[in-house]
Amino acid sequence: MKLRRHLRAARLLSLALPLLLSGCGLFGGDEEEDAPAELVKFEQVIKVRQTWSASIGGDNKFLRLGLTPASDGARVFAAAHDGRVAAFEAFTGKRLWAVKTRRPLSGGPATDGRKVLLGTSDGDVLALDAETGASLWSAQVGSEVLAAPAISAGLAFIRTVDGRLIALSLADGAEAWFVQQSVPRLSVRGTAAPVVAGTSVVAGFDNGRVAAYAIGDGSPLWDVLLNPPGGRTEVDRLVDINAALQLVGPDLYVPGYQGQIASMALESGQVLWSREVSTYSGIAADLLNVYVANATGEMVALSRRSGRENWRAPTLLNRDLSGPAAWRNSVVVGDFEGYLHWFNATTGDLQARVRAGSKRITSAPLVVNDYVYVLTDGGKLFAFTERESR
After folding, report:
1. Vertex 241, ends 240 and 246: CA angle to 5°?
2. If DSSP codes are grouped into helix, strand and coil, which group holds residue 388?
3. Are residues 371 and 332 in the same domain?
4. CA distance 129 to 249
5. Residues contacting residue 18 through CB under 8 Å, at least 6 positions apart
6. Under DSSP, is residue 144 helix (H, G, I), strand (E, B) or coil?
7. Residue 227: which H helix or E strand, with range?
8. E-strand stretches of 147-270
9. Alpha-carbon distance 218 to 212, whole Å?
10. Is 157 among the domain residues?
11. Would you call 250 helix, strand, or coil by DSSP?
12. How would you label 61-70 residue by residue, b for 16+ Cβ within 10 Å and e otherwise?
């Protein structure tokens, strides 16, 4: 099997075990795939330096987990699938604490500065003390958690792979409410993290729907079918909204697999514009643009106001990109060989490239102030910033 065939098969999860075991066959057997693009030479106009690195835990391999660093501004928290969780000073990398939960961690962490929340492959949600790492409580939510929780108003909002959005009490993990959407028989592995805005929480689902619910009791505020399924086969009909939603002011930006990137009004769910762009990894947004790492590895910048394409960079084709992150006047993205690439946010020109080890970068980089943090699938956390001019 060619490398790219293996990588694509690894992205998909059937909810039925027989389909999961025959996942490669779903994509045509011996059909040739394009090879990953070779890295091009360019003049590096941003000088990036690694400030620190730390080992968190074991290799995540091809599990496509929702483990990504989180920060409260002063500290960075990270976790590995083998159950280890650690906290570091954001700028020095000093390890503040490390614990072994002995749970198969799969989503998170998330933090409000007081607690650190994580989800597991066994359907548990864990709460740790942000100061010490001590266990505070655990709650069973019934299905794997592949996205970081959202935290607001004394509640934690959890998206599970069985189509539920669950609100848990931050105090003790008790369930406050839950809602559920239908899940197709076949779906892309992954879950979009919920987004809290004011008194509402918004989530995307595997059936192509985006919905907003009242934080207090889960009552529905609006529900929109963004990506209607189409095509003859189950693969053709994949319309998952698995990548993270982005909120900028009153506007919500939603990515879909084999579907659209859409701008929606947060208050009503009205679609303001949409463009045919497929992504399974994610989007980023700043005041001017929405940045997309599309399914073929192109970086695309769309006008935040109109959806017009401002630039497209094909230099990373088939390199299995992570979600992007906005940094200053740049956008940063990782790839399957552990490289981080900086693009000019205005022109799409490459500005810098560094390598964070040799393992895949699945989750989007985390930007805190002028620092970029990235967790590799090898379980290592890296911090980068711009090198000062002499």
Report:
1. 165
2. coil
3. yes
4. 31
5. none
6. coil
7. none
8. 150-152, 155-159, 164-169, 175-180, 186-188, 195-197, 200-204, 209-214, 220-225, 246-248, 251-255, 261-265
9. 9
10. yes
11. coil
12. eebbbbbbbb
Q: Which residue has the tokens 């002028």?
A: 370
Gyration radius of the chain over CA positions? 20
CA–CA distance, 354 with 338 (Å, rounded to integer): 9
User: Same domain for 4 and 50?
Assistant: no
47 — phi, psi (to 5°)? -95, 110
Of the candidates 180, 199, 232, which is a domain's last residue? 180
Provide the 3-class DSSP secondary structure of residue 8. Answer: helix
Tell me, yes or no, whether 290 lies in a domain: no
Domain that holds residue 13: 1-35
The enclosing domain of 117 has a CATH number of 2.40.128.630
Domain end, chosen from 154, 180, 206, is at: 180
Same domain as 20, residue 85: no
Output the six-digit token pair for 37. 């693009």
86 and 99 housed in the same domain: yes
Task: Domain count for the chain, please give it.
Answer: 3
Q: Which residue has the tokens 């679609």?
A: 271
pLDDT at 60: 62
Residues 130 and 24 grouped into a single domain: no
Return averaged pLDDT per consecutive 10 residues of the chain, 390 residues in all. Answer: 36 35 36 80 96 86 80 96 96 97 95 97 97 98 94 96 95 97 67 90 89 96 80 56 84 79 93 87 91 92 96 95 95 97 97 95 93 95 84
**Tokens coding 114:** 């007081």
Considering the domain boundaries, does residue 112 fall inside one?
Answer: yes
Choose among 12, 3, 35: nearest CA to 280: 12
Per the CB < 8 A criterion, the answer to whether 206 and 225 are in contact is: no
55 shares its domain with 110: no
**With contact defined as beta carbons under 8 Å apart, do 270 and 264 qualify?**
yes
Cα–Cα distance for residue pair 338/360, rounded to 1 Å? 5
Within-domain flag for 297: no
Q: What are phi and psi of 373, to 5 degrees?
A: -110, 140
> Are 129 and 105 found together in one domain?
yes
CB atoms within 10 A of CB 388: 7
Residues 313 and 384 in one domain: yes
CB atoms within 10 A of CB 225: 13
